[in-house]
Design a protein that fits this description.
This protein is mainly α and 243 residues long. The protein has one domain. It is 53% helix and 4% strand. Strand 1 and strand 2 form a beta hairpin. Helix 1 packs antiparallel against helix 2, helix 2 crosses helix 3 and helix 4 runs antiparallel to helix 8. The model has no long low-confidence stretch (mean pLDDT 93). The structure holds iron/sulfur cluster (2 copies). The site of one iron/sulfur cluster has 9 residues, from loops.
C-alpha cells in the first residue's frame, strides 16, 4: 500500500507556493543567462548565479517535502546514516543541479578520486545494459546496478552524504515506509518494500524541467555520475581559466 499524505493541508500549500515562486524565478533567470553560457565569462556568471540561487531552491524543495511528510499517517523509516539507497544509480538530475554540484566539489582535495569513482560507476552501469532496447531496458540496468551494491562516490564513513547540502532532488525525494533492510539488494523488489517518492505538483515539476531543457544543446546526461563527468569534460577548460 502506498503512503497517504494530505496535499491540501495549509502547510503543504504554503510550502508549495514558495517553491513555485522559486522554480519560476530559476527558469526565468536561466533563460537570460544561457545566451552567453558557452563562453568563459558566461559560464562564470552562471556558476555565480547557481551558487546563490540553488541553496534557496533546495531549501524550498526540502520545506515542501517536509510539509508533505508531516501530514503522513505513518512515519518514514529513513534516518541519518541509513544509506542502502545510496547504491542506486542516481538519475533524473537536472543540468543546473549538475553544474551547481560540480562547482561545489571541483576544488576539494577529494575531487580527483571522486572523478575516478564517477568513471567506474558510469562504466559499470554501461556494462550492465543488455542488448534488448525496449522500454524496460533502463530499469533492468538500474536494477542490476543496484544489486552490485556499489555506493555513490559521495557517500562517506558512517553513511553520511559528503555533498548533503548540494545533493540533487532525486536524492531528496526518496523515502521508505518499510524497514531499511528491505531497501537492500534484492529486497527492493520484495512485496513488503515500501519505497516511495514525494512528487511535486505538475506545474512546478514542469517549470523545473523547462529550466533543465534550456541546456539541451549541451546534451548533458540525466544521470548524476555521467552528468558530472560530462560537465567536467565540457566546462573544465573554463574552470582552468578561472583558477
Ligand atoms: S530509503 Fe531505505 S535505505 Fe534509504 S534512508 Fe530510507 S530506509 Fe534507509
Ligand atoms: S549524492 Fe549523497 S544522498 Fe545522493 S546518492 Fe550520493 S551519497 Fe547518497
Amino acid at each position: 500500500m502506498g503512503p497517504e499524505f494530505d496535499f491540501t493541508s495549509a502547510d503543504v500549500i504554503a510550502a508549495e507556493e514558495s517553491l513555485r515562486i522559486v522554480a519560476r524565478g530559476l527558469k526565468g533567470e536561466l533563460e537570460l543567462l544561457l545566451a552567453e553560457f558557452g563562453t568563459a565569462s558566461g559560464y562564470a556568471r552562471m556558476r555565480d548565479y547557481l551558487a546563490e540561487s540553488m541553496p534557496q531552491v533546495y531549501r524550498s524543495y526540502d520545506a515542501f517535502v517536509a510539509a508533505v511528510l508531516a501530514t503522513g499517517t505513518e512515519r518514514a523509516a529513513c534516518s541519518q546514516g541509513c544509506s542502502h539507497c545510496c547504491s542506486h544509480y542516481v538519475t533524473s538530475v537536472e543540468p543546473y543541479e549538475l553544474l551547481f554540484l560540480h562547482d561545489r566539489v571541483r576544488e576539494s582535495a577529494e575531487y580527483p578520486s571522486r572523478v575516478i569513482g564517477l568513471h567506474r560507476r558510469a562504466a559499470l552501469f554501461s556494462s550492465l545494459r543488455d542488448a534488448r532496447r525496449d522500454d524496460q531496458a533502463e530499469d533492468r540496468a538500474l536494477y542490476r546496478y543496484y544489486l552490485r551494491n556499489v555506493p555513490c562516490p559521495f557517500l562517506e564513513e558512517g553513511g553520511k552524504c559528503g555533498v548533503y547540502d548540494s545533493r540533487p532532488m532525486s536524492c531528496r525525494m526518496f523515502f521508505s515506509l518499510s524497514h531499511p533492510s528491505l531497501c537492500k539488494g534484492k529486497a527492493v523488489i520484495d512485496p513488503g518494500n515500501r519505497n516511495f517518492l514525494i512528487e511535486l505538483p505538475e506545474d512546478i515539476e514542469a517549470d523545473l524541467a523547462r529550466a533543465g531543457s534550456l541546456f539541451a544543446r549541451f546534451a548533458l546526461p540525466e544521470s548524476l555520475f555521467e552528468g558530472l563527468l560530462k560537465i567536467n569534460e565540457t566546462f573544465g577548460q573554463f574552470d582552468d581559466a578561472a583558477t
